[in-house]
Amino acid sequence: MAKRLVILGGGESGVGAALLGKQKGYDVFLSDGSSLKEVYRNELQQAAIDWEEGGHTETLILNADEIVKSPGIPEKNELVKRIRAKDIPVISEIELAYRFAGDSRIVAITGSNGKTTTTSLIHHILKTGGLDAALVGNIGESFAKQVALDPKPVYVVEVSSFQLDDIDRFRPYIAVLTNITEDHLDRYEYNFNNYIASKFRIIKNQEATDYFIYNEDDEVTKASLDKFNIQSIQLPISMENENSAAFIKDGDMYIRTGEDFINMSIYDFTLKGKHNQYNTMAAGVTAATMDIRKEKIREAVQTFQNLEHRMEHVATIRGVEFINDSKATNVNSTWYALESMTKPTILILGGVDKGNDYSTMTEMVKEKVKTIICLGVDNKKIHEAFSGIVPNIIDTASAAEAAGAAFAHAEKGDVVLLSPACASFDLFKNYEDRGTQFKRAVIDL
Looking at the domain 4-91, which fold is it? Predict the structure, then answer.
């Protein structure tokens, strides 16, 4: 009899897992507590997969041989507790995809900040260098769907800590850890060590022929290396240690893997800001490890297009520049955004707080920010953190109101930066919706 595979959650990763499971001969059932998007409903119907929405029928779920859980469903969920009590194996979609990825090489990227940019840049360099690589995971198509519908020799996968929590055999040829800062602590019993351990699961199954690229200047990563049994070849990147696999000195980036040496000027990178220099080093080392020719790496970092909602230039109106950095959903991301500002800044901040500690931003805000525009339902914590540091703090309740207030307080030569440091679910569907509404509001000014 076919193994019964139950999928919890009918978003991009859930539907991808269902399609792959069906293709591989499982008896598949998908269950979603809320409603499915039309596009996913159609995909399930076309593949003749059984599904339900608007609630979970426990009898149809607890008879599973194995369960693929959406990364959005926490362990403290009642249904998950019952599944655990019955000892039904729970895996993530990336684990299922890995099982059927064959001999394809996998580059997996995780980290608190910079993973989407780094993932996209690695994909761009590999494509520029002539590899047939798919961009999957948290970004774009689900990994499982790609394996089912259009298998590739190389997968560049962005993975979150939630996805890593439910892996078993998932083993990337190259694992990249951009950095670790306090994020999502609400999912890890507010224990930072649990979150760190979760990120390091990316190297759990790596062997001596695999590679691990990490930021040696990141204090948390560096302090954690000895706590985990790392079998793979370590390729650290750094701006301080010239013996690293990549380092930056006097405006030049040097990449050294094996005998070969590549160097290029950081002023040629399309990505600006110190944090992006780290992202570019990580991507460059990955590409060199995949034997991409150095002129192709050089060409790719000069032609890379930045991502929407990530330090995205929207418009300059009467000498005031507007930047959409809606993807900055934690304090660290906003800190990096401010670090790359060279003009007086009006900062749009706020949303759903994930246990943010704004004190880490105090010095940066003092140095760069003249006005804070709050965009959220509850802005009390922002007022407490920055009153007395910033002369103006203004509350707004919509993207249009925020853009208008920012413009009213801006002078020629200023920059208005939407970099909220918070999740968006109080006023918006997601960070994309927040960024899109902000861009529309700016264009309408």
Answer: Rossmann fold (3.40.50)
